[in-house]
Amino acid sequence: MKVPHMTTSKISVSEAGASDVKPLLEIRDLAISFATSGGEVQAVRNAHLTIMPGETVAIVGESGSGKSTTALAAIGLLPANGRVSGGQILLDGEDIAGAPEKRMIELRGNTIGMVPQDPMSNLNPVWKIGYQVRETLRANGRPDGPDDVARVLAEAGLPDAHRRAKQYPHEFSGGMRQRALIAIGLSCQPRLLIADEPTSALDVTVQRQILDHLDKMTTELGTSVLLITHDLGLAAERADKVVVMYRGNVVEAGPSLDLLRNPRHPYTQRLVASAPSLASRRIQVAKELGVESEDLLAPSEASPGAAFTGTTAQHRAQQGKDKPEEVLRVENLSKVFKLRSGIGRSADFTAVDSVSFGVKRGTTTAIVGESGSGKSTVAQMVLNLLPPTSGRIVFDGVDTATLNSREIFAFRRRVQPIFQDPYGSLDPMYNIFRTIEEPLRTHKVGNRASREKKVRELLDQVALPQSTMQRYPNELSGGQRQRVAVARALALDPEVIICDEAVSALDVLVQAQVLNLLADLQANLGLTYLFITHDLAVVRQIADHVCVMEKGRLVETGATDDVFDAPQQEYTKALLNAIPGASLMLPPEVATA
Amino acid sequence: MTSNYQADHYVAPIDETPLLATDSVRTDQAPLSLWAEAWRKLRRRPLFIVSALLIVLLVVIALFPGLFTQVAPNDNCDLQFSDGAPTAGHPFGYTFQGCDVFSRVIHGTQASLSVGVLSVIFVLVIGVTLGALAGFFGGWLDAVIARLGDIFFALPLVLGALVITQLPFFKDNKSVWTVVMVIVLLAWPQMARITRGAVMEVRNADFVTAARSLGVSRMGSLLRHVLPNALAPIIVLATMELGVFIVAEATLSFLGIGLPGSVMSWGNDIAAAQPSLRTNPAVLLYPATALSITVLSFIMLGDALRDALDPKSRQR
Fold first, then answer.
1. I need a labelling partner for A58 at 20 to 30 A (CA). Which of A346, A351, A542, B214 fits?
2. Which residues of chain A have pLDDT under 50?
3. Range(s) of the domain holding residue A36
4. Which of B8, B19, B23 sits opposite A510 (nearest CB)?
């Protein structure tokens, strides 16, 4: 297996000269605490890492693991209530943990650069891009003429830099903004660049371009990079060394490939096993229950041992025995939005352009695409929340456009959504019991006692303790909320569940848990999923069929394995190549270890 | 590489950071709703405690003035005591007409508070209904309600009240109710605006879409999901407006277009104190202080509520 990025940086290290290279940044026994209303909270304990000149080191961890806090401490930008309560941060041998603000201002920009996470909010919308670059140059006493600004932007890969410098952030796409931020971060040629999730808000293909370019630039300049990421695959692909943080501690650190292949700490082992970008096969819950893999495509012979809960599911499974038919068929579906472009004028924007596909009962079909591909618009139309401009959606043999309001009410029982944002999809005023009970109450199912029984069953199904019933969404984590959303979707025994980016906002381990839960439920209840996602790695884990969308059009459809093994279209190939860590894909034995 | 750091593969001792079950549910604390959480934050704030105690005291005074003074406010006014200094049993002294100031301040509480409370209730009913409909349904309904509100919004309170109270109906039926009607007519647009904004913020939330795709009707989702989540700014504004309306009543009464002279209120008393301002300023001071304390406590309560209900400060 080849790791191109490791070799490049090794060259630059040896170029730097002597065999006794001193580390550029060394963090020793770092402890960081935050003063909160509930007292002092330790965010980071005993953190240590070493970055040699020209080296790229990645910190990997889930949200709340302390990875960003550690990086912010290194550049002296901890929030006002946070402080370094122990240990040392040695930059070139100088301890900057307790350095005065004046010294830190000298270091920032010139010696330590930073590329922040969110390109949408980290550029000031009222200033031109060029001005924001010039500000950095001037603050660090560098030449700041228009040509210097344009050169900096051009180096970051922005074409036509003179003109771009005169534009405002809102005129830039997400990828271009990130390039502008990289330009600002590297404008003063710092010796250390801290990149905090530099691409997590971007599409995979853009992410790849940006990271490639960042690699190239830092290699040319001999800059060391401290990369913060939640994606183990990305870290392993881009960094020489990986540091894994868990609950504020460094639990494992080492050369990236070695760490990936022989994870020793149980947490790292868990992380490697769950990283979707490294897994290479579908979650095969059914197989473990003794069903052959072909049956996944036709749930007709669903294992008799599988636990059916609802009578509806049983009935459905028996129905399925006779005919594994298409439960959902989308034909030439189009959606045109009118964009206002001035008084009385409007321009047409085709969000979805003549899309057709079918979904077989009991299977998972994934619609994959980058932002703006129209995938979510398809989901909204299938859910009957948005009327199509043209084309048909046939659910169980009936065109959904012909339904009257009472039939739509019945349709809602059979097709349920799960949304992306686990923080937004549950009403914060409803406790969990009321949330899950709402569909039952709306459809007047049973009495209060039987509804309560059903809610308890549903909580069991999604592996939440029954005591969760009395809690409110703000007391639950993202993964738990998403499981509540799953329970709510299941309350009416639906046949089809539309998952709109249902696991995209979750940490890797939690994401794996929810995906496993969804696979379990499918095996047990014979559910059909339409899975909308931007993440091809997730598709591989969950989907039987995949539809790739680009700019409103369907560019490729097929069985997941076929598409992944032999993609036909350039766009699909580009998407597949852009999965971070794809080149490091592990054999399943390791991934499941 | 020559240096050995490359080969280092550090593993932390496992007992140092034991693995937790991924994503376990907290069971050690009592469940916490939005209101329970706000209450927990509130009950420790001095601002809230002081204002709440004052408001409770005011309500008790308004309901049972007899508990605080045995002197009837109007019956035994005697001109021989006109502008008299405090004596035993009459701690605040006497008015120009020789009435007991303390007793008048106590008995005036009822009128002032009831104008405030009634106005707020009607402003809530009208403002929240129109604002919620405008914000939730948008389109032409929003445009009509917004323009209608702008018309009243553009009228300054005193000017508007001067015009409205000259209408024959209001001239002939001066009472607590006419004052309330004037205030409500001029003050509902602000409540409608705040409600509209709060509703628009919530109406596109995923949980509303989720409810709709469960089969909940549009009206149902407005009443059961959108409005409860838009309630916080409405409550804060209503609390503060209660204070503002009490001042409005006093202003109107002072100008002679508010409560009729037969109703005892702080505004009327302030107006009546005008002639004796030079000789006996205390007569003005006491009703004015009562008014200030009342307004201040409602605005302080609003402030405390705003902090406690602030969604940004909520734990996730």
1. A542
2. 1-18, 286-322, 587-593
3. 4-120+191-274
4. B23
Q: What is the pLDDT of residue B30?
A: 67
Position A421 scores a pLDDT of 79
CA distance B244 to chain A (A): 30
Pair (A294, A342) in one structural domain: yes
List the single residue in B with minimal CA-CA distance to A262: B9
Q: What is the pLDDT of residue B26?
A: 61
Chain A residues whose CB is inside 8 A of the B316 CB are 423, 474
Which of A14, A412, A464 lies nearest to residue B213, judging by beta carbons? A412
Q: Which residue of chain B has the CA closest to A21?
A: B3
Q: Which CATH architecture has domain B40-68+82-313?
A: Orthogonal Bundle (1.10)
Q: Which residue do the tokens 């550090």 mark?
A: B10
Structural domains in chain A (count): 2
Token output for B166: 């000259």
- Facing B11 at nearest CB: one of A247, A252, A476: A252
Instruction: Identify the closest residue of chain A to B10 by CA–CA distance.
Output: A253
Query: How far is CA A548 from each of CA A444, B109, B282, rounded to the nearest angstrom?
Result: 39, 71, 82
- What's the CA gap between A99 and A140, in Å, rounded? 19
Domain limits of chain B? 40-68+82-313
pLDDT digits (tens, 9 = 90+) for A488-546: 999 988 999 999 888 887 888 888 888 888 988 898 888 999 999 888 888 888 889 99
**Within a domain: residue A491?**
no
Q: Looking at the complex, does the CB of residue A477 fall below 8 Å from at least one CB of chain B?
A: yes
Nearest-angstrom CA–CA distance, A35 and A102:
24
**A395 and A503 inside one domain:** yes
